[in-house]
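Figure S7 source data.
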Amino acid sequence: MQDPPIARGFRGKRPPAQSERVPPGQHLTGDFPVLSAGPTPVPDLKSWSFALEDAGATIARWSWAEFGALPQTELTADIHCVTTWSKLDTHWRGVSIDTLLQAAGLSDPPKAFAMLHCDGGYTTNVPLKDLTGGKAMIATHYEGKPLEPVHGGPARLLAPHLYFWKSAKWVRSLSFMERDAPGFWESLGYHIYGDPWREQRYDGD
Ligand SMILES: Nc1nc2c(c(=O)[nH]1)N[C@H]1C(S)=C(S)[C@@H](COP(=O)(O)O)O[C@H]1N2
Ligand SMILES: [Mo]
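Tokens for the predicted molybdenum atom complex:
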């Protein structure tokens, strides 16, 4: 049999196969499940703001209009929920945490850890090094459309390299913390950090 005219494997490095992009214990889903610990808050863009806080003081605060005027970032990412679904190539737009720190005049984050605070009272903790360097954003758009309220609209954290419970929906502020401290799910037995590739689902994993 003759060789094909163009040899296989001539397109350079293959992108990883889908199966290599799914962390242990996860399976792929095509749809976008909704997971919320409470009711979906009614968005009110007139009163909405996002704030950076340190030691009880507000360092910076943006209204919805001010937030939308900040430089925008787009990110395509795979997301992984601790309930075992993963979704590949989700596409988001928003403002990166790097941009927010810069806009607040912070060349370096003042503390090593952050707590995200949401409408409805949900909280989650994330180390600053997992929020900077292009790794995370406050997302306002999903697949080219304003983020739906059930998925966190008007704005949610997106930190896709951690289990999706870290991607706080309806987020309103980020407060800096000297030491790591558990948020809502972390206080209820979930892992303090939540790396899907190390299967850090529960405290002690
Ligand atoms: N404010 C808030 N953010 C939240 C949650 C929540 O209950 N409240 N659930 C978390 C969990 S457990 C997951 S898996 C994702 C789900 O996001 P989705 O509903 O857009 O899929 O949001 C996370 N962020
Ligand atoms: Mo979740």
